[in-house]
């Protein structure tokens, strides 16, 4: 058995150890981060300032944009600093905080995506009762619950990780302090956090996914009953963006977490992590809003002023 040591810092290997790729990777992630901040901040500002966007769909979208900013800001600045300076160390406390805030933002995003699916269900399946179903108090409660409940699973798993012991090796083969690489690095029994993760996925993420799936089952059924092709196209266009992001997000998350660490591939994990930690937050403003006529009109008003 390897000697256990008191870990005060970790070494994060990053995406590549090729020196020639450090500057190109820095520029790529700097651009991604800039677009993420600019796009999501712009969406929040437009929604807050334009009365025409004060409805449930854009209310949840503004919360989603804030979550995307938080998720990306938890990971990318440290990655950029590492790529620029070559210093790949991260303190134990920073690592634990990064893990916690990443998992928290992930949980919040799952619940917000579920709330948005329910909102689209109400809009398509019950258009006459939509304003009653999605009244302001309900929207505020759904958003508040999304932000509040997210603290529970992330806090529980992070607490388990803080009780793990690490052996002589302190090298994390990843580009941030992600859960799976940390579990593989530990030389003590990781069944506690693994079981907790599985049950939290089963009790939280899976029900949220099922609500989304059921919502879209009813939505598709309602769209198919629309007689005109134009009516079907308009109804589906209100949901296609959300459905696209939900599909990519859940596929990457389930591929990442709903399997034992014995079958976990670090290279695959890096690719999946890049997808939902940096790429998706960048694309969300484009997919959800910048294709939307109401958002474009709000943007034109701001540019005109």
TrEMBL record:
It is found in: Cell membrane. Its main location: membrane. One of its GO terms (cellular component) is plasma membrane. Residues 39-288 form the G-protein coupled receptors family 1 profile domain. GO terms for molecular function: G protein-coupled receptor activity; olfactory receptor activity. Keywords: Cell membrane, G-protein coupled receptor, Membrane, Olfaction, Receptor, Sensory transduction, Transducer, Transmembrane, Transmembrane helix. It holds the Pfam family 7tm_4. SUPFAM superfamilies: Family A G protein-coupled receptor-like. The chain crosses the membrane at residues 23-46, 58-76, 96-118, 138-161, 201-224, 236-258, 270-290. It is a multi-pass membrane protein. Belongs to the G-protein coupled receptor 1 family. PANTHER family: OLFACTORY RECEPTOR (PTHR26452). This is Olfactory receptor. The gene is LOC117350627.
């Amino acid at each position: 058995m390897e000697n256990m040591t008191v870990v005060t810092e970790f070494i994060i290997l990053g995406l590549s150890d090729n020196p020639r790729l450090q500057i190109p990777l820095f520029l790529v992630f700097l651009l991604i981060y800039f677009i993420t901040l600019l796009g999501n901040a712009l969406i929040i500002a437009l929604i807050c300032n334009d009365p025409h966007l004060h409805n449930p769909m854009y209310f949840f979208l503004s919360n989603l944009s804030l979550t995307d900013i938080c998720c990306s800001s938890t990971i990318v600045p440290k990655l950029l600093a590492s790529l620029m300076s070559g210093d790949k160390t991260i303190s134990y406390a920073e690592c634990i905080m990064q893990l916690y805030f990443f998992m928290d933002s992930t949980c919040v995003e799952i619940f917000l995506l579920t709330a948005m699916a329910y909102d689209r269900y109400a809009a398509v399946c019950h258009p006459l009762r939509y304003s009653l179903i999605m009244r302001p108090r309900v929207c505020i409660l759904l958003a508040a619950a999304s932000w509040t409940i997210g603290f529970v699973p992330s806090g529980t798993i992070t607490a388990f990780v803080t009780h793990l012991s690490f052996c002589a090796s302190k090298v994390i083969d990843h580009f941030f302090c992600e859960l799976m690489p940390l579990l593989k690095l530990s030389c003590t029994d990781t069944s506690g956090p693994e079981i907790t993760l599985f049950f939290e996925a089963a009790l939280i993420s899976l029900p949220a996914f099922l609500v989304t799936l059921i919502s879209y089952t009813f939505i598709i059924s309602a769209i198919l009953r629309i007689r005109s092709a134009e009516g079907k196209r308009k109804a589906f266009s209100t949901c296609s963006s959300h459905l696209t992001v939900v599909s990519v997000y859940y596929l990457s998350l389930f591929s990442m977490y709903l399997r034992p660490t014995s079958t976990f591939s670090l290279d695959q994990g890096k690719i999946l992590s890049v997808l939902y930690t940096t790429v998706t937050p960048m694309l969300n403003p484009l997919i959800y809003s910048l294709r939307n006529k109401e958002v474009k009109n709000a943007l034109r008003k701001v540019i005109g002023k």
